[in-house]
Amino acid sequence: MAVKEFQAEAKRLLDLMINSIYTHKEIFLRELISNASDAIDKIYYKALTDDSVTFNKDDYYIKVAVDKDNRLLKVSDTGIGMTKEEFEENLGVIAKSGSLSFKKENEIKDGYDIIGQFGVGFYSAFMVSDVVTVISKAFGSHEAYKWESKGAEGYTIEPYVREVTGTEVILKIKENTEDENFERFLDEYELKSIIKKYSDFIRYPIKMDITRKRPKENNKEEFEEYTEEQIVNSMVPIWKKNKNELSKEDYESFYFEKRYGFDKPVKHIHISAEGTISYKAVLFIPEKIPFDYYTKEYEKGLELYSNGVLIMNRCADLLPDYFSFVKGMVDSEDLSLNISREMLQHDRQLKLIAKNIKAKIKSELENLLKNEREKYEEFYKSFGRQLKYGIYSDFGMNKDVLQDLLMFYSSKEKKLVTLDEYVSRMPEEQKYIYYASGESIEKIEKMPQTELVADKGYEILYFTDDIDEFAVRILINYKDKEFKSVSSGDLGIETDETKDASDTDNNKKEMFEQMKSILSDKVKDVRASKRLKTHPVCLANEGEVTIEMEKILKSIPNNPEIKADKILEININHDVFKALQGTYETDKDKFKLYTNVLYNQALLIEGLPIEDPIEFTNNICKIMQE
Ligand code: ADP
Ligand code: MG
Question: How do residues 205-264 score in pLDDT, each as one tens digit?
């Protein structure tokens, strides 16, 4: 019998499959089942459009069967079948299925990467088998044919005897190799779990003969094996069900089955969109941070289905980075099974879906915040940082999406509050949204810089995440109220004492000048403080880089030294100031000593390292010995 050659492109794909080192070889079964399902779809369509054809639901199914002794795996369907011509057209060339036609020669080498992500079709059977046989009888035809191929050499077609319409694909499963277990594709339970994993929601029944054991009739001590035909797929996916039919538990068990996470999600979102774009999605907002979430290893993305068939495990394009914690799946009838990663990236439908999903997640998070505050806070403790990164990245493009989802600890409420809550209770004369940065709530609580603002009765937001100040740098303001660090030069607060302080006499001015020159380039200025009440000194800062930023930047390896412009502020109403003044007039050495000690104290309060701890402690000792 004449062996026909594959069309050049088909041969290339075939080579790729035969030599595939791709680890998820099991996806071949998904491909064969999806072809079978397509074939049944076609006959179903005929029945819908042609009165002479009746579609009896029970007659249409897919069957997966194993013949272990002969190493055969069969996937059969009662679908539309193929004529001799269709065999040639469909299995000898790469027809419309497109994963390769647009790929250039050099890109093919990394093709195995694509295999797991997209439908690659019928040829994937060659990843696991030496010989592939397809027997088919087309709908309305009187003849059946057998197509067979051992791979690269080509294929044969010959007449065959088959009574019923439909197709049977028979794979001669490869022998095990050193690093590949092919025999598992002959194991009922393995096959069942592969079907569950990839094809659970195919809408026709997938039947399998499952071997089971039962006690023998006449001797209950002994067991006998028997086979039972089971439908192994659930057929109606949760996302195609009506929301009203589903309970919270249904969603939770789906979340768990899918291994989206091991926690209980704080929220599920079930979308059923119709109109210009139609798709269904079930999304989850997890409660707990996955262990690798804030690492490079974490990959965002949603599962992507094309009409019930899984085409991609993690479609990253469906989620913006700032919502990368969202888990779930999207099913759209408008997407082709055989779509490559780069085609997907430019797919208009997919972009629209992504946009839609983004808006939906945002509004659901807002609802959660409004209606289930505690749950939102749980969520926020896990993923709030990601939202703040979202504000910071992309040049602040996502400000509007995210700013109302932010929360910060409030000095007044002693809990997390939103920016809207903060602004709405600001007294009329309060100009700024005040914040204080530090390592922890406890530390910020003791910061001298907060004294004046707190004394005024103004609320202060505590920034304890390293990203906070950077995010606010991008936000700049919220509802026209500018953010202001309590450590910044001008706090916009006038008090009687601050007036006093600004009226410092010449004598003080000179003294501060002296202090500045003693501290040389360590501080930009020395001033009488407007913000201190009970503390003797603190550091304030001017300019772009804040002290908190300096600390963060310091902790990043290989970062060039970036320093905040620091101002040493002295509380002129404090007894320490009087002591300092005394030394200024009588003892220049002591004055120098006091200045250095005060500066180092201010550094310590800020959590900044002091340059020479030994000198500092020696200085303290000197003072104690007086
Ligand atoms: P695709 O499914 O994307 O078209 P495949 O490589 O999976 O690409 O299949 C190629 C073609 O072979 C199908 O389009 C279909 O026409 C035909 N085919 C494959 N399997 C079957 C089947 N079980 N019944 C009928 N036709 C089939
Ligand atoms: Mg296919």
Answer: 999 999 888 888 888 888 999 999 999 998 888 899 899 989 998 898 888 777 788 788
Closest atom of ligand 1 to CA, residue 80: 25
Of 12, 30, 38, best ligand 1 pocket probe by most atoms within 8 Å of the beta carbon: 38
| Distance from C-alpha of 566 to C-alpha of 608, rounded to nearest angstrom | 12
Residue-wise pLDDT tens digits, 446-466:
888 898 899 899 999 999 998
Contacts of 455 (CB under 8 A, 6+ apart): 533
* CATH code assigned to 238-373: 3.30.230.80
Distance CA 511, CA 505 (A): 10
- State the DSSP H helix or E strand holding residue 617, giving kind and residue range, or none if neither: helix 613-624
pTM across the whole model: 0.67
Which CATH number fits the domain 406-485, given the four candidates 3.30.1460.10, 1.20.1250.20, 3.40.50.2300, 3.40.50.11260?
A: 3.40.50.11260
Dist CA 205 CA 37 (whole Å)? 9
Tell me if 128 CB under 6 Å of ligand 1.
no
Does residue 77's CB lie within 6 angstroms of at least one atom of ligand 1?
yes
- Does residue 361 line the site of ligand 1, with CB under 6 A? no
8-231 placed in CATH 3.40.50.300: no
